[in-house]
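Quick illustration for those who missed Monday's session on complexes.
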Amino acid sequence: MTSQSEADRPAGSAEAGDGCAEYLERIVYFLDNELDQADCQQVQLHLDECAPCLRKYDLERTVKAVVARSCSEAAPSGLAERVRMQIRTVQVQITDG
Ligand SMILES: [Zn+2]
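Prediction with zinc ion bound:
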């Protein structure tokens, strides 16, 4: 049995492919080191050959690094509460919207 999808796929497409949604979900876990070794390898392989997913991975990793850095700098106790309030406000706006 050979794979049918090979022939149907447009060549040289820069858009995210069919399997990408699944990988994009896993990239979050991949960044948190919450994947099995086998899954890690699959994600790594996909990132090697899929530019859109690699960009997404880079973005997530940058955001994570910035958040980690600001957390380790021990934000003043009031700040976390303020951020939480803001998130809640935005959520309410979205719900009302
Ligand atoms: Zn992809």
